[in-house]
Amino acid sequence: MPPPKDVVKIAIQMVGAIPQLIELQQTKPLASVLKDVCDAWSLPNAERYALQYADGRQTYITESNRRDIKNGSILRLTTSPDQEAEQLYSGIQSKNVDVKTDSLKKLASLSQDVTFAQEFISRNGLKQIYSIVEEGNDTGEMLAHTLKAFTELMEHDFVSWENLSTVFIKKIVSYVNMNAVDASIQQLSLSILENMVPTSRLLFELVKKEVTLDRLLTHLQATNAQLQLKAMALLIALLLSATDTERRDMLDYLREKNIRQFIHKNIIHSSEPLGDEMAHYLYVLQSVSLNLCEHRMKTSMDPYSQEQRDLLQSLRQTAFESESEAPAGNFSTERRRSLCAKEFRKLGFMNNSNPAEDLRRAPPGLLALDNMVYFSRNTPNAYSRFVLENSSREDKHECPFARSSIQLTLILCEILHVGEPCSETAQAFYPMFFGQDHFFEELFCICIQLVNKTWKEMRATQEDFDKVMQVVKEQITRTLSLKPTSLELFKTRVNALNYSEILKLRQTERLHQEETLAVPVLELREKLKPELLELIRQQRLLHLCEGTLFRKISSRRRQDKLWFCRLSPNHKVLHYGDVEEGVQSPPIESLPEKIPVADMKMLLVGKECPHTKEKSSGKQNKDVLELAFSVVYDVEEYCLNFIAPTRYEFCLWTDGLNVLLGKEMTSERTQTDLDVLLSMELKLRLLDLENISIPDNPPPIPKPPSNLNFCYDFSHAEQ
Where does the secretion signal sit in this chain (predicted)? Predict the structure, then answer.
């Protein structure tokens, strides 16, 4: 007979005592449970004790989290949080350096627990930490423990960052600006400032003033990877909290200091592999830099702006300088206007009498004009060749430079996500972005020449314009997906991917996607499906058994806390627990938490998940929603919440969990894998039928013979 749902069987340990095996009644007050446990060990003053998990993070058991206790959990009887907080509050004020250091070390460890943190903060414990930092001159182990404890206590959001004194903040800043200070202290100080910056405008301005960009660049050049990471985190926090003008000024200064080239050489191409956190920060830096183009992209051309009109005229003058310079003085106004209109038509403007009208569409707005001017000034030979070459073609075959430039700018903005907010989780950056200061403009210069090349390869006319631009978009997208490390490599690869190659790739993909539609082949597909789906199910469960590292992401900031989850080899229990950075595949025995598969009720994804609903008051992040899923388990319907590191992991985990729940696999990856396996299996089965046409209908079955006497008679043995 199964135990009642309000009763869990647990073990309770205490140092120097024989463990107790008890049945914990969840309806019984925790104080009464503690009294019974203490009485069994003859311990007076039960109110001075508390229970906490013996493994993992050793969280204190409270009335609010006691329902998380599972059958088989091992708890430990320990000093209650209020007693521990009282002792440590006194310990960190001790005159004895050793006692004070040990107390701060223990405080840094216990502060991860929300119950203890609440008790310590309620005793005005943070004030003592402020005093140690503000009044002390120590820069060794004691200070490191103090800063660690402060970071953990502030993590619980009981106290606002705006309550910090200017003296405390400047002291933290001084550790960042010092040269002769331990790297661990600088890392903690940078982390504190990173958390502080987004909380208020006042704190942002204070940190921006006190920690110069030059100082952050010095830390970025450090050989210590963690110090480098924390410096990058603070730099990104400052950029995200700045106004548009401040952000532009900061990025201009960083460009003067060649930060992109440094990142390209010493971080992206360093001997150490790039971590997820650094990859995310590089993605944000790329996104923020590209978003500087957003204002020009969304601004239409003003036909009354002399500056913009001069830029437009410079395009015409650069292309047709020799033709229009000499006789211009002899032309009447009407003749000059007619000549200008003709030249603008040769440049590829749709509205040649008033070319500004072509640039009224936003996006791409003035960004298209900027790109054309950059191309004409920085690669004048290529610009003149493009324009003059097309001027001499037949009208119907000329490639319109201006129209192509406007559409190409729009395509590049779409591919590079210009104007879109930064994702909280994305890590997809382009290494070549950091090898070039004027990345967007230089990329445009390569791609506009690609447009002309593809136009000629396709023998296109004006009616084919959209088709050509679609091919160019595909060429750029396919080449960028290869992550070329430099613009030169991008140029080589994108030019090698000519129109005939695109047609071959499309044909190959079409053959992969569209199998022969003959009825017998379709019937064979259906017969093969169950066997191959079972193969996919086994692969999904095997992946769950191998386990995956997940990140904890809060609404306040991107966390670097990790946890690991894996399925037991017998497919009966999900094991999970927190792990340290750098641990890739912890053994199943080290994961303290368990969920029996039999207790799992359902799988939730996206907006249905409780951890995405909790954040609904803020700005929902599309990427997080696409990667979120939750397992509902137990009678009380608890939830284990996940945010997958990638879409691939999301598909494999949701499929695997659906298999465990006895449901269909619903991810897009299932269909992709099934199509690949079916394609391979069909090709193998039909190998002998190559070049033989398969009829849509089976051949007719012949009539039965008039007699069946054609069988060999074995009854007569040979004589």
Answer: none
